[in-house]
């Protein structure tokens, strides 16, 4: 009897995750738009323009961070709280839902041995759902609290903020960092803290933890020093994240070393610090410590690629996801070597997973291509700025060369659609129909990384 | 004994097509560079710069058509003959080799029933090779002769060229058109003929025939009015070509309708004619009837996509190929519908073919991305111009916004590498390892389109 009740509760929503996730985000975005449209949300006596409220709400709940107005001066304290709440709900929501979907799709990434049976029948019990929700909340609260305390103390004692302001700025940026929210209360993001590791480092670490994905966090906590026992998904994600961070770091350092407007004026230690921060942010935290608009075009292009790839699956990061990108690299490598099977770390990747990765990546390319062409009609800005903004929106990175604030309404709507598609699209596409495929044969043991 | 001798003759080269095709093209490019470096090849008394001879030879043998100097005035009559010969050898070579590789990879695209056995053992007899070579030559000679005669007569009697010049201009542009060579003896390509259908139409048709691929041409000739009996490859390629031509036509017409520097000044009939021509050329003939540099940025972006896709497999066109692109679209469609198998026109596409398509497309994306970033280091031109030139080089389209002539040596070398990778890379990648996979099981009947 009890078992029956659980199934009835969970199944209807989890059977149609392709609809559930977008609907949930649409609902929250609508509520957010309503709240931000209230006069109380805006600094001064006027209410915000509807398009501004919509853009900001979608950007916050999709944890993107692109803005058409300056967050710190345009919105009131209440508006800032709404934005922080939207980032928190959006980040928590995507992490929880994507983790649950990942649990269903993948038999391997279980929370406990008891779950194996449940996942094999492609169902979760109510207890499992509760377990995921509670653990995601625990991770979020722990990381955000630690970072908020560090930032708040630093703001209070090194920068002499009033206690209330220091506390709020600490909380806001901790929430933004862990949830890859990208919003900052400073009009120049974190540029004024480029030389302050006490601000930069906690923000970077929070965004890495939030952005690497909940299943990886769980496995890293449980099996920190047993990497050989990690699931294939964790292995690919951790390795891929390392490769991308290192490559980005080297590129940023090499290209921007002498750029008088970015790394040029810094001493070596701060150059390294800023380059590492800049390499980590496109994963999709979206803060910047050097002015994005002044980066060289080569750096923009490299950043485009990093933003398109994004972070880990079932986390707060956007993009096609690290596992998707490297899985496709392994597929190509197998093809070039003439191997009939794609094997990674001793496991064969099923065709269906390869096809999911292909679909997510190519639909991502299509979204960026269509978005860029659409924006060409709406704006006269240079192509690389448009491409950067489109990639940032799709990857929910939130970095901006400064274009978004100048877009007309049509251009803003293109960006809104891209943020939404980038946030829920990849998750929905990757998991929606993995659940519908019934065709099964017994073959060699398989293991599926989460794609998207 | 005779059978043994045949095997010995054919097998060594066909077993390593990944090496054979690039080596053949490298060899011809080297000879071409040598010839074009002779003083006799250049107008006036000096010899060409080595980088110019190299760039032109690679562009000609890869049937791209990008140029750093004005073909008609920089090179002597002898130099023009060398360029025409390189285009002919390049076009003939890629068509023949890709057709033979296609025959081996695909059991369905046979020239005669006798061949089925041979292809199943992944070998061709000497007689079959000769048959393909002769038939490709026949198609080339027929189409080129007809077009050369039409163009020559038109140049002689409507434009009052001297007989020898009319004949040479007719031959040169017929060779360029059929082989998707992209070179023209006019510094403005075919812009002065934008209103002359007697020049525009034969060139368009020749480039469509050459660019749709030899296997499709053979099947269209043999089974013109029995489309239901066409191979899956022919069905996808013909349908896809129609879709891309129609979409390109509509885009060009819509975007450029009022552009004073392109379609604006033309009357409706000539607008339509020029838009159709412009939609067909990115497939990779590479002529232009309106100035490419004056097209709107939206049109550049659409053209980028068309050039990247290119034309039919085993023809003179470049790009990832129409069949590859639409095959991937079918894969995505199957994924979105939750179908375990990808079925097109009643046939299941094997996983290995899907993986080849994925590999060709993603390596193409990687080539364009890396090429663009490399060119950013070598040039200060706007991003969209660089992207256009890179895509044109990779797709061996040969259209240019005017940038190539201004590139420094490093930039020219990037373009040379891209032309080479685009010309032989996709063919080599797509077929090389399809021949090495040994793992086979009996399953449902399958059919493989040529990919790349
Ligand atoms: K973000
Ligand atoms: K061409």
Automatic annotation (TrEMBL), chains A, B:
Membrane topology term reads: Multi-pass membrane protein
| Keywords for the protein's UniProt record, in alphabetical order | Cell membrane, Hydrolase, Ion transport, Membrane, Transmembrane, Transmembrane helix, Transport
Enzyme class, UniProt record, top EC level: hydrolase
Q: Name one GO molecular function term.
A: monoatomic cation transmembrane transporter activity
GO BP terms: namely: metal ion transport
Q: Where in the cell is it found?
A: Cell membrane
Q: Tell me any Pfam family this protein matches.
A: TrkH
List the transmembrane segments.
20-38, 50-69, 81-105, 132-155, 167-186, 198-221, 233-255, 305-336, 357-378, 413-435
InterPro entries in alphabetical order: Cat_transpt
Q: What's the protein here called?
A: H(+)-transporting two-sector ATPase
Taxonomic source organism: Stackebrandtia nassauensis (strain DSM 44728 / CIP 108903 / NRRL B-16338 / NBRC 102104 / LLR-40K-21)
